Recover the amino acids of this structure.
DNA sequence: GTAAGCTACTTACTTTTCGTAATCTATAAA
DNA sequence: TTTATAGATTACGAAAAGTAAGTAGCTTAC
């Protein structure tokens, strides 16, 4: 996607947070660290996309991945500081939705 | 897209505002009423998609379409109250972007 | 009177992303 | 050897986005 000349930052933010499922994944992780299956169950998202999104978010430094070498394997995801800083933003969207949808 | 059992409102809001280009179109319209070509020039969006998005936003009551039967024809788009109510939300995303991107 | 120009779309076509379901990896217990 | 579990990957058809050309209605220029 080309960048908006208007506001590159907002453009970049929307490219990231506005991507399908991303905001909902972050919203879910605001509850605390969670495993792959827990997130998958909480949202109507498929494993394929969840895996893809989590990788993107990890790459952006928004989500942290922690592997526990148990049997069976356990993997937890949690928000980094950068990820937590999105709480206000997500809440603001939520509030708007409560008032207007 | 299926609805999130977790938070249907946030889900609905993201479906709307999180759609590609939508937030940027609203951001642009916060400057005041604008014509089709003006929006198209301000953003790296194609006429095809801009037309599609404006229709969606009009249907959701976020944008108002006003036709002036001049020559050549003039069409202006502006935010409704519901649309204006998104200002805080968009600014919040912008602020986050300024701090973290 | 026909050709060209303006604005706001619309259509046809290609590329990218999404959604669903099946499959894979590693480990251990039955 | 088969089964089970968690996390992830792959294959493929469907949907959405991107690109570029075309349309409609009206005006002015030639």
């Amino acid at each position: 996607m080309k960048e908006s000349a208007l506001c590159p930052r907002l453009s970049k933010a929307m490219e990231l947070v506005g991507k399908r499922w991303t905001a909902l994944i972050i919203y879910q992780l605001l509850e605390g660290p969670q495993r792959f299956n827990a997130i998958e169950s909480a949202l109507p998202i498929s494993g394929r996309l969840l895996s893809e999104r989590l990788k993107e978010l990890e790459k952006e430094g928004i989500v942290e991945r922690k592997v526990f070498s148990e049997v069976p394997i356990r993997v937890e995801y949690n928000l980094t500081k950068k990820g937590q800083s999105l709480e206000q933003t997500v809440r603001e969207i939520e509030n708007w939705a409560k008032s207007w949808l």
